[in-house]
Amino acid sequence: MKRIGRLSGAARLAVGGAVAFTLSACGATIIPDGGRATAATVPTPSAPVPTPAPAATVPVPVPTVPTPTATGVPVGANAIATGIAAGSDLSTIGLTPEMASRALAAFRISCNSVTRRSDSSGLTLPGDWANACAAAPGWTDSDAIRFFATHFRTVQVGDGRGLATGYYEPEIVGCRTRTPQCQVPVYGVPSDLVEVDLGQFSAELAGKRLRGRIDGSRLIPYHDRTAIDGGALANRNLEIAWAADPVEFFFLQIQGSGRLRMADGSVMRIGYAGQNGREYVGIGRLLRDRGVLQPGEASMQGLMSYLRRQPDGGASVMRENGSWIFFRELTGAGPLGSLGVPVTGRASVAADPLFVPLGAPVFLMMDRPEASGLWIAQDTGGAIRGANRFDTFWGAGEEARTIAGGMSARGTALLLLPTASVERLLAPR
Predict the structure, then answer these.
(1) Which residues form a coiled coil (predicted)?
(2) pLDDT (tens digit, 9 = 90+) per residue, 18-64?
(3) 8 Å CB contact between 151 and 421
(4) I want to staple 243 with a disulfide (CB 3.0 to 4.6 A). Which of 96, 136, 249, 428 is the partner?
């Protein structure tokens, strides 16, 4: 969902974590490779925050002068440059059979990707996953704890202190054709949207992309939300469907994928196909900074209520987020994460691939019990940036909507890496 946005592989740059509202995503036209512009409300935790265990080994030294790494990532900008240390033994972190079984099922479907893709975090090589991926298909779910204990060891990136938000797959009322009930266009990718891989021009810009449109001989920013709402893409046969509620569709764009429930009871599933390159603006933070939100309105549900109370239905506020997500119809398994495999509710998590190898298990010890446990990193998000920043996926339905919409948890994160990776990384230097 590349969360916020790009549920599928590159999915979701503008979309984002379910609460996706107080943090800003990336710059206006330079956007990270992938996903959703997830952002989330960050209330002050009421429960004690778990303290990371002291590092068991000396972190990998970081040069003081930024120079490109072998992967083209500037030093200090990925996990290996930030520093890693051995984490707790798997037998002591509190894995339960249920969470391990769910994670093993999600891990299996990642193997075709992790054994082939390059890892920009610097932590793993494709061959490191071979033993675990060879064993996973025949391993029984009831013995999943032993699977992870056999093939993985934990490491801590930086100080291990983490933040977890949540996202989900929303379901809203929609129509395949325009009707009096459905007036909000769901656009596919316009043919004049141009995407430039900036990494081809500079190693320091590896993983960054710029999107815009050609005007004569110039590349200029693509239409923003205000222009698109005003009809900039109308009459071009770009509509793949129509939504009934502009507020619900706005938040579906933040998630990067969702379901359109038709009048006949059928469902059309849509997923991230592209983004206009405009900066994601978290309207929750915007409204909070203006002092207009009442207590309890910083959640997704509270923000929806605020928008509906405005004379224009919240249109002027929503237009302050210039980012717009383009969709495609999903007909197979899904929703798809940035790893290119379906994400699983209560098992998949979005992470920054510069700090977490996509496909890797992640153990979260948070001040919210719902977020604590073993997850598999299978997605990314435009606002999910930096070490130990995660966005937990909760599936579809009202319960998923409620949990994801109010999720903000702090605590400690451990990565589970293949044994071969850890032995290489922490070998005496």
Answers:
(1) none
(2) 333 333 333 333 333 334 444 333 333 334 434 434 333 333 333 22
(3) no
(4) 249
Give phi and psi for 381, each to the nearest 5: -155, 145
User: Rounded to the nearest 5 degrees, what angle is found at the Cα of 268, between the Cα atoms of 265 and 272?
Assistant: 155
Q: Are 20 and 300 in contact (CB under 8 A)?
A: yes
Distance CA 400, CA 393 (A): 8
Q: Specify the CATH number for 1-166+269-429; select among 1.20.140.150, 2.40.40.10, 3.30.428.10, 3.40.1190.20.
A: 2.40.40.10
pLDDT 10s digits, 164-207: 999 989 999 999 999 999 999 999 999 999 999 998 999 888 87
296: left (phi over 0), alpha (psi -120 to 50) or beta: left
d(CA 123, CA 415): 10
Structure token digits, residue 309: 């109370």
- One-letter-per-residue 3-state SS of the chain: CCECCCCCCCCCCCCCCCCCCCCCCCCCCEEECCCECCCCCCCCCCCCCCCCCCCCCCCCCCCCCCCECCCCCECCCCHHHHCEEECCCHHHCCCCHHHHHHHHHHHHCCHHHHCCCCCCCCCCCHHHHHHHHHHHHHCCHHHHHHHHHHHEEEEEECCCEEEEEEEEECEEEEECCCCCCCCEEEECCCCCCEEEEHHHCCHHHCCEEEEEEEECCEEEECCCHHHHHCCCCCCCCCEEEEECCHHHHHHHHHHCEEEEECCCCCEEEEEEEEECCCCCCCHHHHHHHCCCCCCCCCCHHHHHHHHHCCCCCCHHHHCCCCCCEEEEEECCCCCECCCCCECCCCCEEEECCCCCCCCCEEEEEECCCCCCEEEEEEECECCCCCCCEEEEEEEECHHHHHHHHCCEEEEEEEEEEEHHHHHHHCCCC
Residue 90 structure tokens: 């798997």
The token duo for 353 is: 């691939």
Paired tokens of 193: 């949207």
Domain layout of the chain by residue ranges: 1-166+269-429
Would you state the pLDDT for residue 256? 85
Report d(CA 240, CA 177) in Å as an integer: 8
Residue 95 exposure: Cα atoms within 13 Å on the Cβ side: 27
Cβ count near 427 (within 10 Å): 7
